[in-house]
Amino acid sequence: MMNALSDHPKAVIFDVFGTLLEIGQQHHPYLLLMRYLRAQGRQPQADDSRTILTFDGSLAELAAHLGTTVPADQLATCEAALQADLNSIACFVDVAESFAALRQRGCRIAICSNLAQTYGARVMELLPDADVYAMSYQLGHIKPEPEIYQYVLDKLNLAATDCIFIGDSTYADRDGAKAMGMDGRLLDRPSGQQLKGLLADVLVGL
Predict the structure, then answer these.
(1) pTM for the full model?
(2) Rg (Cα) of the chain, in Å, rounded?
(3) In DSSP terms, which residues pair with 184 in a beta bridge?
(4) 39, 65, 88 — which closes off a domain?
(5) Domain-embedded: residue 5
(6) Do residues 110 and 187 share a domain?
(7) Which residues lie below 8 Å from residue 130, measured CB to CB, with a gap of 6+?
(8) Directed axis angle between helix 29-39 and helix 72-88, to 10°?
(9) Residues 104, 131: one domain?
(10) Using 50, 70 and 90 to split pLDDT, how confident is the model at 7?
(11) How far apart (Å, rounded) are the C-alpha atoms in residues 162 and 21?
């Protein structure tokens, strides 16, 4: 249900992977890179995941940022894994219909994602019509840090209570959005849940 302060949402903000897009078969290019760096003596750091998601650069540039030059053959392996991921990304079947229904209801649409830079262009290609994009690698913040949600609200020029946030992560999407005052909703695609069901109260009558 929407917050009592706003029964008619003006915008719906979506997470990306696991919510709107799926990778058919994951090849884990960043995991390959980090394993190589560890084999070269670099010890894993607690903030490695955040570094990857907030770094605006290629795999090779990330390695350099972390203090290591990766040999061409190893870099090619990581790049091939990345390309395989990019080639297998697709929208879930209910996305286009749900977006069209939201537009018919007069709702704006925003994208807010913890995303490595190398996936950004493909995401934009598959989701080209959002009103606002908030990518962690561009903003230097990740969910559930409040700054990334606030960026979306500022760009939409809306109050938090005017927005629904939908994603597949309890802490980053549902709880993080709720902490900002939004209506955070958890999408459980593995159980068969679809966007239409999660937005039934918004799309009623269509």
Answers:
(1) 0.93
(2) 18
(3) 165
(4) 88
(5) no
(6) yes
(7) 109, 110, 111
(8) 160
(9) yes
(10) low
(11) 25
